[in-house]
Structures are given as C-alpha cells and as structure tokens.
Amino acid sequence: MDSARLERILAMFRDRGGRVTTPRRAIITGLLESGSHVTADELTATVQTAHPDVHTSTIYRCLASLEDLGVVDHVHLGHGRAVYHLSDETHQHLVCESCGTVVEVPDTVFTGLAKGIQKQFGFMVQPRHFAISGRCRSCTA
Questions:
Q1: Domains located in the chain, CATH noted
Q2: pLDDT tens digits, residue range 2-14?
Q3: Disulfide check for 38: which of 29, 42, 127, 139 has CB 3.0–4.6 Å away?
Q4: Are 131 and 76 in contact (CB under 8 A)?
C-alpha cells in the first residue's frame, strides 16, 4: 500500500472538515489496497477482516460521509451494484457490454461533451457518476 498516498488523502479529508476515525481510515486503506473499484460489500469484508468490530452500517455511513467530502466517488458500471474508488486520482469509465472490461480514461475525454451539453441545454453533467457502455477493442475485433 502507498502510505504517502494514504497520508495525502487523510490530509485532504481533514482539510475539508472531516475527522479521521478508525473506520474511515480502514475504509480508505481498504480502497487503496483493492487497487480497483469495489462494491460496498467487498469493502465491508476487507474492513471487517482487519477490524471485526466495525459494523456494516458504520461502513455505509462512512462511505456516504467520505463521498460528501469528496474523498470517495461511487459509479455505476452497468447494471450491477455501485462501486467505490478514491477520488484523488480522477478518471471516467468505459464499460464493455460484451465482456465487462472497465477502461479508465482521463477526465478530459468528456470535457467537450460536457461543455456542449451545458451550452446547448443549460445542463451541467457530472460524468463521474456514470459509465459509458459500448464494446471494447477486443470485442469489436
């Protein structure tokens, strides 16, 4: 696990008014160790392995507060459950509807689209919340 990244995230959390508690630190650590997008249930299993006294309801409440403070994002990668990831390394998602591959792309990929929607419809999109579905390179070959 990247302890420098953990400390940066905790500092960002404190700067935004958050209080670092054992469950919150355990959740952030679990997200860092996962190296991927995880469901709340997967994260709960990870956290409770190291901290069995942290209840599932506490984990859900902590995820919500971490998201409110901009430390964690959740995204819907298709028809399954929402997944969570740390928001310090922002990216967007493309999901193959054939094989399920998730491709992370830079935020800038959607900048033009978001500006066009705002200009034409007066609507500000928040693309981090959803994934664009389609077919990956392997499945279209």
A1: 3-86 (1.10.10.10), 92-140 (3.30.1490.190)
A2: 889 899 889 988 9
A3: 42
A4: yes
